[in-house]
Write a structure and sequence with these properties.
Two copies of one chain form a homodimer. Chain A is α/β, with parallel strands linked by helices and 542 residues long. Chain A is 27% helix and 25% strand. A five-stranded parallel sheet of chain A has the order 3-2-1-7-19.
Chain lengths: 542, 542
């Protein structure tokens, strides 16, 4: 067996290591265009900021180690330029020498990754305008930062963009982020990003939403960025982080099937339309585990799994990739935002019916010092209660709850199962009723009809809105048009709430509103609680 | 409906609140023997240490709030002394006045909790010998500590015992812990507690295992503790933390069925042997979700769920308690130990076949600063791969992995599902191959026959033991009798390993040992890797 692997980072390196574990006598060649194999892609922004101080830390493994441990034929700075499917060969160019040669294969695994999108903006090639993909890029960015950058502009408020911003701020650089969409972190639902914008602005970052770069002009030691809005931003460094596209040229040229967004089409065995060619990682089109639709998710975890599965199948083991659920996370200053499964906007786009709940719990018992707040949103099927997606934003403990719910999604569990989750509780770690349980209670109450809830964005115009918080809380800010009847006076003041129209109640985070809903329901009223209360309302109205 | 509830902490308070949400017009009486309802049981040790500075923080809710929000008839310092099942009344004694009266019920929920065991040791009633259950106890302990305690003895190295030890050390108290069993934290498997003993000893705590208190003698301002071993320990404060027993006297006197260990027997609807009486919390016998056997698990999370379910059923909603999986966690200094599902010793006791794996991953990407190590043990069915239990010990991130695996156990997932878990990865939060994935890889490799593993405690006597680490690692400590052939020399030095007998390989944490196993297997050798490597061996041999 002669196995060629194109690409030596997550998917390719995983495939190569797995292949050797399955076969001691296969000839396995790993081609990597860059000088390094298997570097820590996700660590690059932190090297710019000095959080990761040593460049060597970014080298997860080395070509030398792959050779000595795995007997791999590692060829770096070697670009695979073409595939001859008929003769089962690839054409390779050695970047250092320019020498070209052909290499035969029995099986081929493509793991070329994804490249930063470079939209056709005038001035894109100015030296101060950069993208971040590999160690060479990060060296260039860091060199420029080290040389002294006062102002930076990040175009695109995705995960890598925001991580770079955090690191620019660490380095004392005044930073502006420009995002075409009307929110940061486009994979998340907009209201969940409100605390992230607040965190950015509190650190002095200027956030420009619904705007885009139309041109870059050389100006002094840097560039002037022309925006669609007419604004001009001067910067010594511009990062383009507007997304990635699959590196599919090799596949397209070879006539392999690709999807509408460019991803190489593969079966659940990671096999392309050519049975001797497999593909893995950011370049492939895979299946969304929850929706069942094709998608492209450039994430390291799925890439590693796909590489492993591709190698399995090369050696006759019919393992399958179950699809991705797009679990992702980003830390920005002291905030964390994470997501798993489908977002509300994905569900709307797919025209799929759903319900949602919001809670705003502390990450551990409130009586133990250091409890940090978070907002957790759970999306679920309105009939079966199956968990379809979850998002959380906050500080400590966000990652844990999203991982727990990621397991629930993988297992096709329902919100009723979340009620019954038995999670580890001591006061430093959680609560006797963990946020995951609370989300289960609130969602299950909604589905059972015990706890009718209305979403902030669809408050009925003709309802009486009752704020059941204390007068002090009400005075500090409330939903326009609301009347204040504190929960502990509600039973005595029922007559103040018109019985001939529907009532909407709310409190700060939803708990007292729930109790008020129960009271009013049992008095025959038509009533809904605003899920997540005033805090949720603020997410939509800040 | 007149509902009486006995006990106002976790189970009772949850039942009362749920009952009111289900019925505005029921008369709900909550009897609590102590002066406080719903206090933060699990926070008590931290109040002793001053970590929780304000006593008021321990009051999760107040009788006043339960009255105003929930219209509950809360009667504190009221002891329910007897149940007359025929006439459906209880006899109540007001502790302040001594007045007794009868109260009628339609339904009764018992949530009396569990009391610290007080074994018949001479001198048990000396004022310096205390137990910890409620706020009164913690006030007494704290008063004594505040008055000046130089030496403390904690009898029993369970969760509460260790939490108290941490807090005693915070307060500068030289502490000795005496445990009858040969390990601390008896719910965990012994080898997993090795790092906890090390943490205790590194903070100056004396750990005496396999010993017990035989008597307490008044001595100066404190007591002298006589141990079975003959040792004598002088202390100004002794805490007895040797377990709890269900407060079942009321139930037993009323002729309700109880289990062999005293727990009140209930159906999955939390109904006792009397259909008008329900029970919830630490006093009940429930079902172990994994083993299906009856058990008693005095934990707050299940108590809350049970209280809720009892109230549901009182009001005609046939919800069920799915059983407990015993998920628990404890923090001791900078160490965390957590567990979910069955332990190895439970499995052995139940004579149930199982396999196990150990891994020693970092809690997040190693290239990002601050990665902390942990040891994760996963127990699973040897045929189906179903996850039966997991334990972890380490620093940061232990709670997350145990919670994730708790979900897997709830969903009856297998180790093959752990391989495919898609968890949130950014370098501050995890790894592209999360510890949960790694555990899945190692366990699945074992079940598939790709990665034969041998447990440390059953190393074959006649095998060649090959240490595949570097000579420097080997020199720093190795398994007696092992020969050193570093992984990167293994292929060239195969002939040094006798082919006519079995081989056992190992490395530091298991990865290189796995690679060595793959190489040797493919050369026709009979070979097993020591799961978790030298680190696991050290857990058994320290």
């Amino acid at each position: 067996m002669k196995l060629l692997i194109v690409g030596g980072v997550a998917g390719g390196a995983s495939a190569a290591a797995r292949a050797r574990r399955l076969s001691e006598d296969a000839h396995i060649v790993l081609f990597e265009r860059g000088p390094d194999v298997s570097f820590a892609n996700c660590g690059l922004p932190y090297y710019v900021g000095g959080v990761i101080a040593e460049r060597g830390k970014l080298l997860v493994t080395t070509a030398e180690k792959l050779r000595s441990w795995f007997h791999l034929d590692v060829r770096t700075q070697s670009s695979v330029e073409a595939i001859d499917r008929k003769n089962k060969t690839v054409r390779v160019r050695e970047l250092a020498t320019g020498r070209e040669y052909e290499e035969k294969y029995d099986k081929l695994i493509l793991a070329p990754g994804a490249a930063p999108l470079r939209p056709p903006i005038p001035g894109l090639d100015l030296p101060a305008v950069m993208t971040l993909r590999n160690l060479g890029d990060v060296d260039r960015i860091k060199a420029r930062v080290d040389a002294g950058v006062k102002h930076a502009v990040v175009v695109g408020a995705g995960f890598i963009g925001l991580e770079l911003i955090e690191n620019f701020v660490h380095r004392g650089i005044k930073t502006t982020v420009v995002e075409l969409q009307d929110q940061v972190l486009p994979p998340l639902d907009k209201e969940m990003t409100t605390p992230i914008v607040a965190a950015l602005e509190s650190r002095g970052v200027t956030v420009l939403l619904g705007d885009s770069a139309e041109g870059f002009d050389a100006a002094g030691d840097g560039v002037s960025v022309r925006l669609k809005s007419g604004k001009k931003l001067d910067a010594q460094l511009v990062i383009l982080g507007v997304g990635v596209r699959p590196e599919n040229k090799l596949a397209v040229d070879a006539g392999l099937d690709c999807g509408p967004r460019g991803g190489i089409r593969v079966s659940e065995h990671m096999q392309t339309s050519d049975p001797d060619i497999y593909a893995a990682g950011d370049a492939v089109e895979i299946v969304d585990f929850v929706s069942g639709d094709p998608t492209q998710v450039p994430l390291a975890g799925p890439a590693n799994r796909q590489g492993r599965i591709a190698a399995d199948n090369v050696f006759g083991r019919p393992t399958k990739f179950r699809g991705t659920q797009g679990t992702s996370i980003v830390g920005i200053f002291d905030r964390t935002a994470a997501s798993t499964g489908m977002s509300e906007k994905m569900l709307r786009r797919a025209n799929r019916s759903f319900r949602k709940i919001y809670i705003h719990p502390a990450h551990h018992a409130g009586y133990y010092p250091g409890a940090e707040g978070m907002t957790l949103k759970v999306l679920f099927d309105p009939i079966t209660g199956r968990v379809l997606g979850a998002q959380a934003v906050g500080g400590q403990g966000v990652d844990k709850r999203i991982d727990v719910i990621a397991m629930a999604i993988q297992a096709k569990m329902t919100v009723f199962d979340l009620e019954e989750a038995e999670l580890a509780y001591a006061p430093q770690f959680g609560s006797a009723k963990d946020p995951v349980n609370m989300a289960g209670f609130v969602a299950s109450g909604l589905l059972r009809g015990d706890h009718p809830q209305v979403d902030v964005e669809s408050l009925p115009g003709d309802a009486t809105i009752v704020d059941v918080r204390t007068p002090a809380e009400f005075a500090a800010g409330h939903i326009p048009g609301a009347v204040n009847i504190p929960l502990d006076e509600l039973r005595a003041r029922l007559s103040e709430i018109p019985a001939d129209r529907q009532t909407v109640v709310y409190c700060q985070v939803g708990m007292r509103g729930y109790l008020a809903t129960r009271i009013l329901l049992q008095h025959g009223r038509t009533v809904h609680n605003i899920g997540g209360g005033y805090r949720t309302w603020l997410l939509y109205n800040t």
